[in-house]
Design a protein that fits this description.
alpha/beta; five-stranded parallel beta sheet; 537 residues; three-stranded mixed beta sheet
């Protein structure tokens, strides 16, 4: 499968991300551990802090799984996690229709493989955990799936409006049927289609919540690989987090300064990924709508509701399930609940973790290993064949289609056909001079015939030149179409394939077990996180 790779600097990855992989020492003030250092992995394994009471955690997670309907495959992993020395490698992602973008799968594969590797290296149980972003309420971000159609990238939208509540609780309605039909119409029928749709229809059903559907899909793919599914959008879990929610209010000034200090330091050289705010909590009203809590002095507000600092802290302590963390607080509560050895992050997540080192300290925690996820572009056989007929490297297709086409046309113009044919005519004329003299000496009346013959040579050359120009134009059109096809497949929607194409696109063409095969290859060969992989199918 894995044929080669691209360096991250050849693609659209940030300076921060490439520095993290190639020159970690420059970022050691933002991240306490280098995930590519075995010494740092072992050092972090000895220094896990802040995990809640394991017995209460296991009980709460069991209830969470029951609410998702995924209890059967989790008991063994929960029992393993209950051991006092057990650690976790965690990843997470927003819920997404039909699994979201394929990088969600790559994050999960990375997590499963590394959990196994670390378990061997440190001699302790290590559980792979997928943390569902079950508090997010941006429905538009998750209500689509991306596919490669016959000629272009197609983004299929679910024609359903969100209600402002966490997407986890949004129910799939009758728009699901049209969404399913639209997806099927784009993905042609294969030997694997029936198996795929049995899986998808088992989990994505009208009346189920997006949380249940997504969790069921991920659980079916990876439960037998030991993956545990976690989250915080559950009453029993939030009761374990009440103190941290309350602290986010009572220590708001210290928290703001901790985030801002590192954000400014990071921004001076790289970039700030997430804007700092005066509050890191949302309030869930009586209709479960998620409302940002704002602050003015000692007054906190969420739409028509307001509190003093003391009153808000008391409300959180009494009813923590009415509150929800933002992007900065989510990692804190995740690592409060779980004995997190490392978090498998995408480039954007890695960047905002760089803003958080001092925030962890405010909560009495230490940041885990921040591990860059496996990244890849799948090259299908039809694309591989036409790639060989063009002068560009795979990574160069990251450029705009207009720039690729211009570069190709410029290369084909390197040979000046006018010069070639002009030189040919000159040589013909030179070659005709001696025969003309000989024939003229023999019979001067043949001059006209000789002239016609030479002119005929030139006419044939002109006809040939026209055919060559037409051939070049035809070849250019063919190659330009190939360039467009390659671009659509490898960099659809103007970005990396992994950020827009659904995993079901590949499952439909290559089998529902494609991710298991990729996982086994990663286990056999090891997982290289220092480059962008090219996977040939």
């Amino acid at each position: 499968m894995d044929i080669s790779g691209c360096s991250f600097s050849e693609l659209s990855y940030s300076k921060l991300f490439t520095t993290y992989l190639n020159n970690f020492n420059k970022l050691s003030s933002f991240y306490p551990y280098n995930p590519l250092s075995e010494t740092d992995v072992k050092r972090k394994a000895k220094n896990i802090s802040g995990t809640v009471d394991r017995e209460k955690l296991i009980s709460a997670l069991s209830g969470y799984h029951s609410s998702l309907g995924i209890t059967n495959d989790q008991s063994e992993q929960l029992e393993k996690l209950s051991h006092n020395d057990a650690l976790a490698v965690v990843t997470g992602q927003q819920l997404g229709m039909y699994g979201g973008p394929v990088f969600t799968i790559y994050k999960t594969l990375t997590t499963i493989v590394l959990a196994k590797e670390y378990e061997k290296k440190i001699g302790k149980p290590v559980i792979p955990v997928f943390w569902m972003a079950d508090e997010d309420h941006d429905f538009e971000e998750i209500s689509w799936t991306g596919l490669i159609g016959k000629d272009d990238f197609v983004k299929v939208e679910l024609e359903q409006q969100g209600n402002g509540i966490p997407v986890f609780h949004e129910e799939l309605n009758d728009s699901l049927q049209l969404f399913r039909e639209n997806v099927k119409s784009i993905m042609f029928e294969t030997d694997f289609s029936n198996d795929l749709w049995e899986i998808m229809d088992r989990h994505y059903q009208e009346g189920k919540t997006h949380g249940e559907a997504f969790a069921g899909f991920m659980n079916e793919l990876f439960a037998k690989q030991g993956l545990l599914i976690a989250g915080s959008n559950h009453k029993a879990l939030k009761q374990l987090l009440a103190d941290d929610f309350a602290k986010s209010i009572s220590s708001a000034d210290a928290i703001y300064e901790a985030i801002e200090e590192k954000s400014e330091e990071l921004e001076s050289v790289f970039h700030r990924q997430v804007v700092n705010g005066d509050s890191n909590l949302f309030y869930l009203d009586e209709n479960s709508k998620r409302i940002k809590i704002g602050r003015e002095g000692e007054t906190w507000t969420a739409k028509n509701k307001s509190w003093s600092t003391n009153d808000l802290v008391k409300d959180i302590e009494v009813k923590p399930e009415s509150f929800s963390p933002n992007v900065f607080l989510r990692p804190i509560i995740q690592d409060r609940l779980l004995p997190t050895l490392g978090y498998v992050a995408g480039p954007g997540e890695l960047a905002y973790y760089g803003q958080m080192r001092s925030l962890y300290e405010v909560f009495g925690l230490e940041m885990p290993l921040i591990i860059p996820r496996y990244t890849a572009t799948v090259i299908e056989s039809g694309i591989s064949r036409i790639l060989q007929k063009l002068p560009f490297k795979v990574c160069e297709y990251d450029q705009r289609i207009e720039d690729l086409e211009s570069a190709y046309v410029e290369q084909t113009d390197n040979v000046d056909l006018e010069i070639v044919f002009d030189e040919w005519k000159e040589k013909l004329e030179e070659a005709a001079e001696r025969p003309l003299k000989v024939i003229d000496n023999i019979d001067p009346t043949l001059d006209g015939t000789v002239g016609k013959t030479v002119a005929g040579f030139e006419n044939e050359l002109n006809k040939l030149k026209g055919k060559v120009y037409r051939s070049i134009k035809q070849q250019e059109e063919t190659q330009l179409k190939r360039i467009e096809k390659i671009k659509v497949n490898l960099f659809p929607d103007g970005g990396l394939q992994e950020r827009s194409i659904s995993p079901i696109y590949f499952m439909n063409k290559y089998g529902t077990d494609i991710w298991h095969k990729m996982l086994e290859e990663m286990k056999d060969k090891g997982i290289d996180l220092t480059k962008h992989h090219l996977i040939e199918l």
